[in-house]
Every structure is written in C-alpha cells, then in structure tokens.
Amino acid sequence: MxxxxxxxxxxxNPDDFEVCQYCQARxxxxxxxxxAEENSLPQDETGVEEPTSPAAAEIPEWLQELRQDEDSLELxxxxxxxxxxxxxSEATGDAGSIPTGTPDWIYEVEQETQRDFDHIEPxxxxxxxxxxxxxxxxxxxxSIRLGLHGTPGLASSQATExxxxxxxxxxxxxxxxxxALISRSRGPATRPAKLRVSANQLVHIDLLRELVESxxxxxxxxxxxxxxxxxxxxxxxxxxxxxxxxxxxxFPGQPAALPAFQEETxxxxxxxxxxxxxxxxLVAFDYEPGExxxxxxxxxxxxxxxxxxxxxxxxxxxxxxxxxLAERFIEELQPVHHYTAGVxxxxxxxIPGGTASLVMLTGNMPRALPYTIEGLAAWxxxxxxxxxxxxxxxxxxxYDLVMVLVDDPDVARAWVEQVEPFISSSSPxxxxxxxxxxxxxxxxRPYYDANxxxxxxxxxxxxxxxxxxxxxxxxxxxxxxxDSFGVGLFMAVLLMLVAGLMYSTYPLLTxxxxxxxxxxx
Amino acid sequence: xxxxxxxxxxxxxxxxWCSVKFPFSVAVAIGIGLITLAGYFxxxxxxxxxxxxxxxxxxxxxAVALLVGIANLFTIHWNKLTSGKVxxxxxxxxxxxxxxxxxxxxxxxxxxxxxxxxxxxxQLPVExxxxxLLAIILVVAGVRLLRLRSNMLSIIFIITxxxxxxxxxxxxxxxxxxxxxxxxxxxxxPAMAGAxxxxxxxxxxxxxAGLRVLIGSDRPYRG
Amino acid sequence: xxxxDIFGAILGFALTLMVFSYLIGDNPLFRVAIHxxxxxxxxxxxxxxxxNVLLPRMxxxxxxxxxxxxxxxxxxxxxxxxxxxxxxxxxxxxGNIPVAFLVGVAAAVAIGGAVLGTLFPQINxxxxxxxxxxxxxxxxxxxxxxVNGIIILVGxxxxxxxxxxxxxxxxxxxxxxQSLLRGFNQVGQVFIAITFGFLFAGVxxxxxxxxxxxxxxxxxxxxxxxxxxxxx
Lengths: 521, 223, 232
Fold this sequence. Notes:
The complex is a heterotrimer of chains A (521), B (223) and C (232).
Chain A: E1 3-5, E2 12-14, H1 36-39, H2 61-75, H3 81-92, H4 104-118, H5 139-149, H6 178-183, H7 199-214, H8 229-250, H9 263-273, E3 280-286, H10 292-308, E4 312-317, H11 322-333, E5 345-350, H12 355-363, H13 365-368, E6 401-406, H14 409-426, E7 432-436, H15 441-448, E8 457-460, H16 461-472, H17 476-510, H18 514-520
Parallel strand pairs in A: 3-4, 3-6, 4-5, 6-7, 7-8
Antiparallel strand pairs in A: 1-2
Chain B: E1 7-9, E2 21-23, H1 24-41, H2 45-82, H3 88-108, H4 113-148, H5 152-168, H6 179-188, H7 190-214
Helix pairs in contact in B: 1-2, 2-3, 3-4, 5-6, 6-7
Chain C: H1 3-20, H2 28-64, H3 67-84, H4 96-128, H5 142-165, H6 176-231
C-alpha cells in the first residue's frame, strides 16, 4: 500500500488517510471550488468545509501529479527545505516568493486561490449606503494601543516580520521566536499610571521622604535656654525659704514652747528611768553623717538621760563612719558628763555585713567585735581585764537596753527583725528603743503598735527630741534649731498653698469666654 | 567534667546521665543559704554553730567587698587621670583627697584629733549641705506636683503633708485647736495602716526574692 | 581658737557654699566639693575596714591565734583573695564563688528576718487590734478603738491588695471580681497617698533641720569674721 508523509510531523501514513494518524494534520488539502460562489468561504460556524471522502470526490490531475512527485521524492535522499525551495522556485520562475520550507502543494493552492480571486472584482460601494465609519476608539484605548507597541496596527507589521525557517511552522511569518522569548523573560510592560493624590497625602509623602533621608544623619540637639521658668521657680523658692530661716536665726524673737511628749516618747523615758545602777546599754550609731544635725538634736537629750542614770555604754555601728560619729557625739555633745573611753563607755567600732552583722551580735559578740576602735582588746586579755561596760556580756540579749540611732528604714527594720526576737526570748527585761529620723516615723510605728511590742519606745525627729528634752530639762541643742525649724516648715506650707491656689485658679482665669469662642467659631 | 571553669557537668546524653550544667557557684549559694535559713527554725547546736561560722565569714567577706569597691573607684579615676579624658582634674582631686585621708587617718587612727578635724570640716559640711539642698528641692517638687498632676490622690498627698508639717513645728507659738490631735490620729491610724501594708508587701517580696535565690532560679552572682 | 580650727571653719564654710551653688545649676565648684567628699569618705572607710575588721579577724588569728583560730581564718582569707579577682575583668569569673556565698547568706538572713520579724508579728498585730480587752493609751474609748481598728484593717488589706493586684493593665469590661479588686485598689491608693504624704513631711523635716544647721553655721562664721572687722 502506498504511504503518504504527514506535512506536519513527517511520519508515514497510509495513502487513503485524509488526516495524519499521529498528529491529526490534514494529509490531503481541501478541494478548491470551481465557481466564484463556490470560491467564497462557506459561512458556517467553523468556516471550514467538511471534507469529503476521497473515493467520492474526483481527484484532480494536479493532485495526482503531486502524489507521484512525492513518491519520487521519497526515493531520493533527504534534502533540506532550502534545496527544495530552490527547486520549486526554478520550476515556477518566482524565486523570491516561495517561503522556505512551505510544502509545494500549499503553495500551488495559494497560487490558484490568488488567481481565482484576481478575477473577482470587489463590489462597488453602494452610494445610498455610506460606508461604515471607522470606529472611534476611546483615548485610553488608543493610548494603550500606541503605548504597547508604538505602531498604529498589527497587520502592517507583518510584512516586515521575518519568515520562520525551521520547525513545523517553517515558511510562516509572524511566528514568535521561542529562543528570544525564553532568554528574554521580561515582566509585563509597565504602564504609566496617574494616581489621584490629595494635598494631605502629598504632605505625608514629603514627611516620610524627609524621615528616610535623615536616617543615619546626626541631628543637632535643641539648645536649652540658659534660664528657664524652672530655674526661676527654684531660685525664688530657695530665696524665700533661706531668707526666712536666716531672719529667724539673726532675729530670734520670743522662743516658742517645746511640744508635749507623745506616748512613745514617754515609754522610752520610762525605760531609761527604770535602768538599774550601772546598767549596761548598747547604743548603735547607725546614721549617715549627713543626718548629724537632726539625730544629734533628737538623741542628745536621750543620751544625756542615760549618762545621768550612770549607764555603761557600748557603742557599735553597722555603717563604716558610725564609730567616728559616735566618738564625736560623746566628746562634743556630752562633755559635761566626762565619760571616758574604756571606763564609762567603750567604742567597739564597725561591724560589716549589714543585716548579717546583726545576727552576729545575737551570737558571739567577743568574736564579732574583739577590739575597740583604738585597737585595745575589749573582752580582756592576759594583761588586762574585761572593760567595765562589757563585763558579763556575751551577746546582745545580755544588755538592759538596746538603743538604736538610725535614719535608714531598711537598717531600722533589720534591727527589729534580727535583734528584737532574740532580746525578747533571752531576757524579760530586755528592751529595744530607737531614736529615729522624722522620715521613719510611719515605718517604725507599726512595730511599736504591735502586740506584743517589737519596739518599746522611740523618739522621732527634732519634734520628738524636743518633747524628750522638755521632760528632762536638757534643751540647749534643741532650742538652737526649734524656732527656725518652725519658720522653715511654715514657709514650705505657705509656698505649696500659694502654688495650689494659683494653679487651680489660673485655668479659670485664662479660659476663653463664650462670646470669644462664638466670634472665632 | 564541665565545659568551662567553675562548672560541674553531670555526664552527657550519650551516657544517659543527667546533662544539666550545674555551676559550682550555684551550689555554694543554695547550700550555704539553706544551712543559714535552717538555723532560724531548727534549734540544733551543730547547726547553730555552723550557721554562726558561715555568717562570720560572710561579714568578713563583706568588708573585703568594700575594699574591692574602693580599689575599683581608685582604678577608674586613675585611668581617667592618666588617659587625659575630660574630667581628669576632678579625678586628680579625688585621688589626692583619698591618699591624704589614707595617710592621716591610717597613721594617727580614726579617733585622733587630726582625723576628727578632717571629719568635722570636710565630711560633715558637705553631707549636711547636700541634705539641706534637699529641703529646697522638696518644696519645688511639691509646687510642681500641683501644677503637673492635680488629681484626687495628689491633693490628698499634699494636704496630708501640709497638715503634718504645720503640726510638727512650733507655728510661731500659735496653738491651733485639734491640730496636734489630728496629727496623732493620722500617724496612728491611716498612715500606720498604709505603712503596715507596705511592710507586709516588702516582707512578702523579700521572701519571694530570697526563695528564688535559694532554689537557683535567680543567680545575681554570675558576672 | 587655734589656727587649725580657724582653717577648718574656713574650709567648712567654703565647702558649704560650693555645695549650695548647685541651686544655680551644675558647676565646677560643686563637682570639686563632691569629689573631695568622695575621696575623704573612701579613705575613712578603707582605714576603718582594715583596722576594725580585717586585722582582728584575719591577720591577727593567723599570726598569733590558736590552731583552731588559724584554720577558721584561712577559709575567709581564701574567699577574700578570690573576691579580689573581681577587680580584673579577665579573672572576674573566679570571684563568683565568694559572691555566691554572700548572696546565699544574705538571702537566708533576709527570709528568716522577714518571716519571723515582720510577717508573723505584723499580721498578729492587725488582728490584735480587735482585742478590746487590752488598753492602748490613745484609744481609751472602746468604740473609738474598734472604729480605728476597722480603718487600720481596711487600710492594711487594701494597701497590700493594691501592690499585688493593682499594677497590671486594666480591662475595659471587668468582671464582678475585677470590679471588686478595682475598688480595693482605689481605697488602697488613698491610704498610700496619706502614708506617702506623711513620709514626705518627715523627709522635709529632716532636711529642714540640716538647712537650719548649715545656715546657722554660715551666720555664725560671718559674725565671727565680720564683727572683728567692724569693730576695728
């Protein structure tokens, strides 16, 4: 059986097939109609004539000749499409018009079709019916069309496009170059867009741009004014308070009465009054040198009372500068009693460790503080006996009274937590008293008000010291501060009151009235 | 066994042992802390003796820590002085003061006249003046409080402060009826109630923080 | 008055004015005064620590103590040497052991003190207020004692509640319990405001005494300097 090669895939098919069995391409061209009417394309939906069976149709001579030529061509060695095109062009005399690679039967069909169409004259336009007006494209569509390609139409560019030379589409124009497409992967063409941006958005855009541009650049710090309202406020208050206090120092006036004693002050007074002759008292100087004015004034009457009672004093401190403060206190504030170191009092110095050091006082005091601040063996040695203030003392529970002079709430709390339970459990007459700074009164009072009491009496600040001094008549140091102290407190209250009235009435005075706001509105 | 100095690694996952790294310092903190804490609640003589010894060593170490701090202070200011940085003059003043004081107090003793002279004429005036400045600054703060934050709590705060201040001082000898009793009532009832709540809160916080250290959850000593 | 005392008074006067100059603003005079103060304080602390602690506890037992005292002194000495390594950044890791020692002891001491010295007694004290059989000097009237006791109890509980429940973020639609807690917090804030107002007054009182003392010193110094000049 004779075979025919598929023009598309090139595979051999039986001669009687109309379409290739591999790729469904037509093996035999559609038959051209004989008349003009038959030449017009059928107006069915697909626009394709239905093929007729070869047996029924009469095979034209040219097709027969073509098949014979194909048969003869198969016997020849395979020739390139260029050589074939050259042969065909020689045969037809139209060398430049045959697209390379186009099967000659297609070319023949095209030629015959063109010759048939040449006989057909286009119908003249009907004068009564004006031709259709060219479509008026909207501006945006025209701009897209122009913008995409830059040329007015697609069809006119076809003539300039190259003819495909290889592959199944050989001979056709307008074939997309696969290589170019693959190698040149471009994204979709950008289209110029014109957004509608409001004025507010433009301002924000400028701000954002400035922020981004200023990133990494150092900005100069704003210059602070040399004299601001805060400075003036501070100077004014300082001047008012200092002038008032200095005035009261230079021109004292009538001395004000000392305050009456409070319950806690009276309790401390009672504890000291009940000390036995030669009673032993541990006095802890646990305040900072900066508080020397207040604590000296508050404690002077208390220590004076202890010395009047003839108590032996043991001085300790859990702050490094406490021993020096203690020495200064005894020598400068209580010279009248002539207390001598090593005889009536002993200064055991500094015990480090904060809260842990207080635990040591409850354990073994000779081990905790073996020497005095002067370097003498406090607890006795081969050459000297135990110093009188320390006789019979092994720990803090052996004292008749423990007196703590303190300005720090944490230190005061540590004494209560670590020492007081030991005192209460070891000795029924043991007591803990305190001379505290005024700022500690709210913190210490819960310990005083406990049941049973954890602090058995205390003196708080200059006011407490003044009430204690009033009890035993030793008023000198307190008197030197008391009146000026009152002036200073009054000035503070006055300034805060004036400021409060001013700031509360200022918004009312500066608030815009209704008529003004209505006019502006 | 460990991967870095001061650590004890207990085996590895391959051998099946516990692979948690347990630094030695953590073991020291927990062990020492538990022994000390047990001494508060258990009255066993051996435990009490051991607890006292540990506390004694801790207080000695605290004194060494003070010296370490002073040495660090000296080193920083010496470096600032020798490197010519800004503030080198102030560092020189500090070092000169430190060396002079070390010499005088170290040679004569802390209770000698010369040592007391330094203490009375340098230490006390400067510290006393710093605290005196606080009086001015507190008044300024009270005035600014009313300007910046005038809510109910601030008003209660300021009114309480003013009542206490007026009742604390002599007030030019004028006796305002009921002012002293009001001060006493504020001190013994509402202020004490708030302070007691504060103390309880502080106590609970201390217990929580301390337990975190004793179980090794918090390790402030790793630096 | 000796020359040393006069020079001391002049030095004290100058230092006082230098510190007070801070009211104008931070200035070199104030900084000089502060640096002198820090140097003097450090010198005092150093000598007192060496004389009062290290010599009697570490050096003297090692030199002249018994065998037991020497053995007991070696451990803090070793720990002290390890602590000194904290000065060097390279060797600072070895100082972690003595620091851990200190932290462990401090934590235990703090816990023991807080539980036995504050928590139990203060809770007991809050309850004991309602024991009307005991007389407290201020509240001789039992009814007034009961009212005050209720105020103290409410204040204590609400203050504690504020610190533990009141510092978190507030929800927009609170439940019943949250509304109750919010009410507690607000009452607690009132008590805290009163307490802090009292504290503020106390701090100001202490500072005012220091100001009076310093101004008195300045006035006395000027009187002692100016009066002789005026008399001549």
